[in-house]
Amino acid sequence: MDFIPREQEETSGFMQLFRLVMYFCISGLVILGIGSGLVYLIYGMAGFEMMAHPRVGSLGPLRIIQISSSVFVLFPALWLAWSEGQHIGHFYKFKPIRLSLLSCVIAIFIISMPVLEWTIAINQKMLLPDFLQALQNWMQEKEEAAAELTKTLLQINGISDFLINIFMIAVMPAVAEEFMFRGAIQRSFSKIFRNQHVAIWITAFIFSAIHVQFFGFLPRFLMGAAFGYLYFWSGSLWYAILAHFLNNAYAVCAAWYMQKNNIPLSEADQLHFTWYGYAISFILTILAFQFFKKQTNK
């Protein structure tokens, strides 16, 4: 028997989005159910109490659910390719990595850090009108809960915790979210609108909104668009995955450094540059993206 899927004509973008939503719901029920089952088998009912009140030394259940969440996001994108009768590498365009483009992505990540920090600072000062105060309070509560969860997961007692965090926070989300958002959703929107720019920005909006962290919406929205253009220009998902990985891995490495030097994690976002530092970062980032685009045309 031939177990290699045969290439077939793709369905419409609307149908692909419908399938994604369906696969997403099924994946959530099955994979998160399996993750919860693993927590119960390993830790018993105490595991769910640990997740409700996590502390250093009892992060096992929370890590299981966190990794399950990434698999839950990844699987619908893989399922879409299979249901289209396509090879995953061909469907999501995994071309061979070019060193020049790889170096450019790393450079973009470094020089864009000041301007990204500026967008974070602006977003955190967001205030809604008085009549939306209840919404503002709800958004603030969600933000604080997400920040507390992140700080808990970033607790590192040794090299084993560091490696687990790199895998759980950097590797898995970078692969899963780029498959889903840039690979599947952006790809479907590009078929619907027949305009890559519209597809990139709509996907970036969904990517940021689905994290339900409103005071970090702007920087995540811009990063989503950046990942989208890296994918669009290069024609390969590798560079979006790499950029996403670098962003998340930096957070893990920064947390480890701060803990080793007894610096509170709450001070992680308290880096400030002068106005011309932001301006230089912005200009260099635009030029770096232009250089990346030119390199992809060679």
What does this molecule look like?
- The chain is mostly helical and 298 residues long.
- 75% of the residues lie in helices and 0% in strands.
- α6 (113-124) crosses α12 (275-296) and α8 (159-193) packs antiparallel against α11 (238-260).
- The termini are far apart.
- Mean pLDDT is 86; it is low at 1-5.
Structure keywords:
298 residues; mainly alpha; 2 domains; 12 helices; 75% helix
Topology:
Blueprint: H1 13-43, H2 46-52, H3 60-83, H4 88-91, H5 99-111, H6 113-124, H7 133-153, H8 159-193, H9 196-209, H10 217-234, H11 238-260, H12 275-296
Helix pairs in contact: 1-3, 1-8, 3-8, 5-11, 5-12, 6-12, 8-9, 8-10, 8-11, 9-10, 10-11
Biggest sheet: strands, sense, closure? Answer: none
Sketch the topology as an H/E string, one letter per element.
HHHHHHHHHHHH
Mean pLDDT: 86
Q: What's the N-to-C terminus distance? A: 42 Å
Give a short overview.
Helix 8 packs across helix 9 (196-209). 75% of the residues lie in helices and 0% in strands.
